[in-house]
Amino acid sequence: MEYSMDLLLGIDIGTYESKGVVVEAASGRIVSQAAREHSVAIPRPGWVEHDAESIWWSDFVALCRQLLSHPEVSAENIRAVGVSAIAPTMLAIDRTGRPLRPAILYGIDTRTVQEIEDLTHVLGHEWLMEHAGSALSTQSAGPKILWFRRHEPELYRQTWKILTASSYLVFRLTGRVVIDHYTAVAFAPLYDLPAQSWSETSAALICDLDMLPDLHWTTEVVGEVTAGAAQETGLRPGTPVITGTADAAAEAIAAGVTRPGDCMIMYGTTVFFITICNYLLRGGMLWPTVFLVPGTYALTAGMATAGAIIRWFRDQFAPLELRIEMEGGPPAYEVLAHLAAESPPGSRGLVVLPYFSGERTPIHDPHARGLILGLTISHRRSDIYRALLEGIAYGIRHNIEAMIEMGAEPSRLIAIGGGTKNPVWLQIVSDVLGRPQEVRSSLGAAYGDAFLAGMGIGYFQSLTDVLNWLGPAFQVEPIPAHVRYYDSYYEIYRELYPRLRDLMRKLVDLETFVGGHS
Known about the structure:
Blueprint: E1 7-13, E2 17-24, E3 30-37, E4 49-50, H1 52-68, E5 78-85, E6 91-93, E7 103-104, H2 113-123, H3 125-132, H4 141-151, H5 153-157, E8 161-163, H6 165-174, E9 178-180, H7 181-185, E10 191-192, E11 197-198, H8 200-206, E12 214-216, E13 221-224, H9 227-233, E14 240-242, E15 245-246, H10 247-254, E16 262-267, E17 271-277, E18 287-290, E19 297-302, H11 307-317, H12 319-326, H13 332-341, E20 351-353, E21 371-373, H14 381-405, E22 412-416, H15 423-433, E23 437-439, H16 445-456, E24 474-476, H17 480-516
Parallel strand pairs: 1-5, 5-15, 9-12, 16-22, 22-23
Antiparallel strand pairs: 1-2, 2-3, 4-7, 6-8, 10-11, 13-14, 16-17, 17-19, 18-19, 20-21, 23-24
């Protein structure tokens, strides 16, 4: 068979699943696609980890092999490789490239409360606003590195480089140690936003500067597939590899979020937001950042849990639906969506705080805890499940309002991610926001990776060129009667956390005390 197409390969490593695509560069048609599920390790409450070798690299290799087995695909026609992954993650490797411990994941890992407080105290709020762009949180990788240095000093002494997940993949493919500027911003306070470089001031408190990867823009070609990597993956030696980026940014590109005012709402394990801006914003409770190519900026935000709560409910309270799915029946999530539709807006008097793993933006509190308010013996499983979806929607509204306060009001909301398969959830969010959402097919971050790889080799000239790949979106309009109803529930939602914050901290102290003396 002759292979005349120019093909682009994109692979994304997620929290619970990795996905890959091979895309025809000229049309954006997906020629081959594959996915692999994996799990996370939770060795202690608040700790969330991945094994870099058995999950990140193993998934990458397996996906490559599967994608290249498609009859329309040849390694000779893969013109470039793009990668993305969950971010920021903290992985220490030694001089042989061997991971020294499991990778510490992004903001869902909340072990760094003390390190956040210490760094904030020493650097000061004003310095953080000026140089890091925002307050430190469990999303910040800098405190995670400091935790590693303090608690595992012997491993720290063996450390050659500290990587994020996309860095590790590029390292395994090319031997280069790099990170893109967008992901590096989340290594706060180590990245100096105004200077667009690593900060000597903060590094003096955390780690040696030479441990950090070299900074590059996302679409830069930083290396080629080595002979060893080619043997493992099946890729052609010499295939160009770009720096890559975080999964959320690649997903934004796949959704066509490229112009100022565009706001991505990514429905995944967490909810992540990216709003494109004309310039770098400062202050506020969200995360200002540079974007993927020079001269582009964004405002980002992220809840600590979303799909993770839905997965928790499915695993703990839907055993029958899970069993039916395993026996060839409909997906459990689909059945649960129908269940939620049986309950009216407001879930018959329930309000949920979705802080099941603390919360990132806009409250930045790892001590925050989940809550279901209003339970009575008349409530059913359908009410509780719907209330969970509504609680996440209230959190989305809270973040959108914080964007508006910072001067970045979205002109267009683009919904993407696995959660968009749940029409009930989408309708709830539009009703709570009082705004329409444009819903894109869940092509995913890997699709964005493929496009970015094409930019890297000059196939495309601008991020907006991705719009030529994308089909039309469909619109979810808010229902006016529901909007008014949810406004009242949202007022209660906003009052709950300030009133309960101190009690939540007492609960955390009790949990720590009991855990330490059991």
